[in-house]
Amino acid sequence: LLFSASRAQQDDTCAAVVTSSRQILSNVVVKQHDLHEGFGGIHPSVAIEAHQRNMPGAVRMALEQAHISIHDVDGIAFTRGPGIGGCLSVGSNAAKSLAAALGKPLVGVHHMQAHALTPLLTTPTADLPKFPFLTLLISGGHTLLLLASSPTSFQILATTADASIGRAFDKAARALGLSWGTRGPGAALEELCRMTNDELESLPDIPPFTTATFLSVDEPLSSSHKIALARAFQTAAARQLCAKLTLSLQNLELKGVNVRDVVVSGGVASNIFLRERLRAALDEYSSDERISLHFPPLELCTGQRFDVSTDSQGLKIIDTDNAAMIAWASMHRFLAGDYDDYTIDLRPKWSIEDIRV
Ligand code: ATP
Ligand code: FE
């Protein structure tokens, strides 16, 4: 058994219990969206205070839902970075103190590596992605196209020139004056897009499309104009990701690198429209279905969340940031006996290319 006293990255406070045989015994996510909505973004000191308040309860609940005692846990993992130092420290201090007091091994995890490896936890055994695979990490802090050659070796093939795609969704949602709802601004924008099929003006294909969204906003905005702008934004964002993904596949093929699987993860990967566009782009690229596309499941586990939100079709949604993914990303190290010292430092800035450094 393995227990992860964290993610504690920016917003949600998470704790989970995961086994080496890929079972998620519990996966608690304590949300703080409504705390941040007033600021129009994540406010670090508010986030730190909320983590401090919520961490003990999240840990307690993760153990209760897994029906185990802390003494049944064999190791404790936490998010070492990258992220806001103050937020990371809440999870890491909880994990280190627990591990030291109990005499259990400790492993610090790279947050983006955990995103990238999630499909190895959640995909049915028969369809598991095989190294080397391509990973499209699309989250609040990152837009990364990676070549994953092993659980610890990642090469950055492409990244964003300006804001991350998640932040772009957040900014566009704010420009359109959307309320966050339980699932946050990006999901609110996606939901708005589903309300009609109309397209407005097209937005540029390269990053200024977020700015273009702002420039197109006239007050007061009619609701149909709002929906059309949201759709134009979402379409422009998806178009870019599809183009870069197929370009990279072409380049790798030219270099003789044999990629059979593409893994998409990060909070933005829960966007259904984007999932459909990526699938269509890959089908067009490899019509003989040589390449499989993997997404984190919308429903990672049922009945184990502190705060399970529901989308408009009544599906239970789990945002992809969670402690189960952190626990899973630490598993190969626990199994190999490769532990960290209780004195291990945080890495608020930490490239995914330097995991082993
Ligand atoms: P990072 O993982 O880079 O450190 P993070 O952990 O804050 O950042 P995630 O929690 O993985 O990021 O993703 C959060 C982002 O995903 C937010 O910007 C949010 O608006 C966006 N997001 C969530 N759901 C959707 C959706 N359905 N459509 C678009 N964006 C979404
Ligand atoms: Fe994340």
UniProtKB/TrEMBL annotation:
<dbReference type="InterPro" id="IPR017861">
    <property type="entry name" value="KAE1/TsaD"/>
</dbReference>
<dbReference type="GO" id="GO:0005739">
    <property type="term" value="C:mitochondrion"/>
</dbReference>
<keyword id="KW-0808">Transferase</keyword>
<keyword id="KW-0012">Acyltransferase</keyword>
<dbReference type="GO" id="GO:0072670">
    <property type="term" value="P:mitochondrial tRNA threonylcarbamoyladenosine modification"/>
</dbReference>
<feature type="domain" description="Gcp-like">
    <location>
        <begin position="23"/>
        <end position="303"/>
    </location>
</feature>
<dbReference type="InterPro" id="IPR000905">
    <property type="entry name" value="Gcp-like_dom"/>
</dbReference>
<dbReference type="InterPro" id="IPR017860">
    <property type="entry name" value="Peptidase_M22_CS"/>
</dbReference>
<dbReference type="GO" id="GO:0061711">
    <property type="term" value="F:tRNA N(6)-L-threonylcarbamoyladenine synthase activity"/>
</dbReference>
<dbReference type="Pfam" id="PF00814">
    <property type="entry name" value="TsaD"/>
</dbReference>
<keyword id="KW-0479">Metal-binding</keyword>
<protein>
    <recommendedName>
        <fullName>N(6)-L-threonylcarbamoyladenine synthase</fullName>
        <ecNumber>2.3.1.234</ecNumber>
    </recommendedName>
</protein>
<dbReference type="InterPro" id="IPR043129">
    <property type="entry name" value="ATPase_NBD"/>
</dbReference>
<keyword id="KW-0819">tRNA processing</keyword>
<dbReference type="GO" id="GO:0046872">
    <property type="term" value="F:metal ion binding"/>
</dbReference>
